[in-house]
UniProtKB/TrEMBL annotation:
It comes from Hominilimicola fabiformis. The chain crosses the membrane at residues 15-35, 47-69. This is Phage holin. It comes from the Bacteria. Keywords: Membrane, Transmembrane, Transmembrane helix.
Length: 93
């Protein structure tokens, strides 16, 4: 497993915003959908089913989620030594 401080990331609302955006933006972009097209739950459900049945869209989502998880200030898929010591999001310690 990688050296990522998952306990702190899961507590950070911005992490979840990044993950949601990383999943939905590729789907909406690939399908050419705007927010105005998603006015019913049936339309949202159709988009989700179509996205999960398309390998290319799944690859786009996986790549986006990977990019949201990695720390660009370190090499590989790890958190910095300092970030590994955090106990809460955006901690100075």
């Amino acid at each position: 497993m990688t050296n990522i401080n998952w306990k702190v990331r899961i507590k950070n609302p911005m992490f979840w915003v990044q993950i949601v955006v990383a999943i939905f933006v590729p789907v909406l972009g690939y399908m050419g959908i705007t927010a105005q097209d998603l006015t019913t739950w049936q339309a949202v459900g159709n988009v989700i089913l179509t996205a999960f049945s398309n390998p290319y869209v799944l690859l786009l989502m996986a790549t986006s989620v990977y990019n949201a998880i990695i720390d660009p200030t370190t090499t590989g898929i790890t958190d910095s030594k300092t970030a590994l010591t955090y106990t809460t999001p955006n901690s100075d310690k």
